[in-house]
Every structure is written in structure tokens, then in C-alpha cells.
Amino acid sequence: MTVRIVQFLAIVASALALVPAGAHLAALPNKIGLPEADYFTVQGIYRGWVVLGWLWPAALLLNAGLAILVRSQAVPFWLTLVAALCFVLMLLIFVIWTQPANQVTENWTTVPANWETRRRQWEYSHAANTAIAFVALCLATLSALAWQPEGS
């Protein structure tokens, strides 16, 4: 029963982690060409989203914990482990590309000289993380489907 509970939580956390990332991707085509003033105004809608950032470490920990729980079965183990690694990759992308753009722009309240470069950096890092979160969700789900209770 413990495995099933952790599977459920890993899938839910992975799905929830995809939601804000997907919102960024959905907005990208409408935002990427906005003039400076409009872009900075629109970026204000993300104030307070920092709390959603906790979904990624939660999904990472749940998928890593699940990998440990299902380690006796190769397919579920590897699927879950790669799902956990997807969240590691997402966090790395955030630290390397997204957060520096947030810092230079003071969370999109200050316009640096290279704001357009920072905009592309910010938007495309979120787009990449959306794709990775989707893969992680698929892997976590496939792992749960592949897992067989002992004695089955």
C-alpha cells in the first residue's frame, strides 16, 4: 500500500509541477514580441508564483523516494529514477537561465540594457522546463503502470 500511495503522490506532484510551467509556455507566443513596457507589465502577473516553485523539489523527492521503493523491479525503477532526474534538470535550468534573468531584472521590475536577451532566456528556459516536466509526468505514470505488487 505504501508504494501505491507514493506513486499517487509522485504523479500528482509531477502533474502539478507541469501546470505553472505549461502556463508559461502557453503565454510565450503572445508575450515574446511585446514591447518593453507591455512585457514588464505582463510579467507582474507572476508575482507570488514563487510558492509554486516548491512543486519541483517536492516532485523530485517523491519520484526519488518512489525509485527507492520500487528498486526491486527494473522497469519501474528506471522510469521513476529518470522522472526524478528530469526535476533535477529543471532545477538546473532554473538556476542557470531563469533565476539570473529574474535577478538582473529584479523580478521584472527593473529594465536592464539587455532586457530582450533576458526575456528570451527567461521564456525559453520555461518552455524547456515545460517539455521536461511533461516527460517526467509521463515517466512517473508509466512507472506506476509497470509496477507489479509482490506476489502478482
What do you see in this structure?
The protein is an all-alpha fold and 152 residues long. The protein has one domain (2-146). It contains 5 helices and no strands. It has helices at residues 2-31, 36-43, 55-69, 74-104, 115-146. α1 packs antiparallel against α3 (55-69) and α1 (2-31) runs antiparallel to α5 (115-146). The longest helix has 32 residues, at 115-146. The protein is elongated, with a radius of gyration of 18 Å. It starts with a helix and ends in a 6-residue tail after the last helix.
How many domains, in number, for the residues?
A: 1
With helices defined by DSSP (H or I, 4 residues minimum), what is the helix count? 5
- The topology string of helices and strands comes to HHHHH
Overall morphology: elongated
Mean pLDDT: 96
Record field, number of beta strands: 0
Q: Measure the end-to-end span.
A: 14 Å
The residue fraction in helices comes out at over 70%
Low-confidence stretches: none
Q: Over all CA atoms, what is the radius of gyration?
A: 18 Å
Oligomer: single chain
Structural class: mainly alpha
Approximately what portion of the residues adopt beta-strand conformation? Answer: under 5%
What's the story with the biggest beta sheet? none
